Amino acid sequence: MTSAITQVVLFLAILFILAFPLAGFMVKRMEAPLSAGEQRWFARLGMLGHNAQPNGDGRIHSEMNAKQYTIAIVVFNVLGLTALFGLQLVQGFLPLNPEQLGAPTWHSAFNTAVSFMTNTNWQSYAGESTMSYLSQMMGMSLQNFLSAATGIAVAFALIRGFTRKNASGVGNAWVDLWRCNIYILMPIAAIIALLLVSQGVIQTLSPSVTVTTLQGDSQSIALGPVASQEAIKLLGTNGGGFFNTNSAHPFENPTGFSNLIEMLAIFLIPAALCFCLGKMSGNLRQGIAILTAMTLMFIGFYWLTVSNELAGNPWLANQLSSFGPIEMNGNMEGKETRLGIIASSLFATVTTAASCGAVNAMHDSFTPLGGLGPMLQMQLGEVVFGGVGAGLYGMLIFAVLAVFVSGLMIGRTPEYLGKKIEPFDMKMVVLAMLAAPLMVLTGTALSVMTEAGQSGIFNPSAHGFSEVLYAYSSAANNNGSAFAGLGADSPFYNVMLGIAMLVGRFGVIIPVLALAGSLAKKPRLTVTSGTLPTTTPLFVGLLIGTVLLVGALTFIPALALGPIIEQIWMHL
Question: Fewer CB near the last or first residue (10 Å), C or N of the chain?
Fold first, then answer.
């Protein structure tokens, strides 16, 4: 257990050291006035709008209200979905397809297009045997950038809502999307790709190669432009792997150091955005309070997973005891020997804390409580660091709820970051919080009750139920990781999970942007002796309690039918 503690402490220390200066750079780039070049190009494309106003320095700064910002974000993503769906259907006629792969089925193409557009990257197909190099690069990798930029842009819009006063605008969506991609995602992804290549991650356009194994058989080994896609899939908390086994594949994640790079890439921007909140609000402690709540919950879920994986399977030990004394050295099932239990458990906790979905081990093979940790992190709304942008605006939703509950308890109008929380704001908070749980529970119920849903469940009883529950938790919360063991490549699951992804993404983004617009119009109130402090350990505890309480009330009954009862059976 000492090694488990050392690894997580080292990981978090490096993360915070990298995230703080990145936050300063992000705020500087995202909040800068339009340059002369940006003015010229955005004006030509008609993206400055009719309300473009000159600043004191003569430059133009165009603002959108919440409705305009929302429409731009939705239109941008619908165009991306349509393009990716069409690209898959015609990939057989396009170049950079050395294996001559044809088009996937319509329902698989629909699921994949929705998945990558919503930053979910759920994959019901095997990447190396389904998608051409062109589809991987022009479709999946490109959409990884665009969906990640969407999340960051929405997060900055909400931060502006909290930090501006008496303002009608929350930023310009087109400018934010441009800057997220050009100044933040692309440069960092390039650095990560080079680091991964140095560790042995492949990057080539060569076709697959055939080799002779030690047994004398022939084996075809798939190749491809992996490092470039791997970098943005992690940095953008997307998660879609070039290969079917994702980051467990040695061509995607060959060494312990590459494993560390990938975990840092997943958390880097979510952690930096917390510091961005502190810098833009003028009180760094506000961002640190949010980051502290995320970190404490992350450590708790990591302990739940790694302790159960290190403990192993007592049922297996009992079955083998008839052969003599046996000492369990943990549960290595479904894990790569080059990484081991601790690194696999840490990666599983990181990837499901963020809405990433990249996996270096099969969660289906974890112990029941070891698998419950990753599942519950998603069900909480993936606010334990969460996805790029999505984690911060998701946690801010819970922060608003926490101050609202506190206000009711002491009989005061709730305030957060100097903004009074009123009925409209709480309606948007509730809508954002209900979207994903509604799809998870409804989708799971329909799948276990209908013949089409049951046909994809290959494991019996509680474990099969856990696989279905995990799939919808992953889809609706835009994670994309799979418990595995579920036959999800069918019209029923591809469509149902696609709908869950759409509702889970835009059912949160739209209320969040409406909340941002409402808050931006309000004045910032002066802090008084009656104002609830939101930078203290007490508030951090209140925030964590609110997140866990909402998650427990929503999902504990369903979890009791899956991993909880399975854990009890394992000890019988």
Answer: C
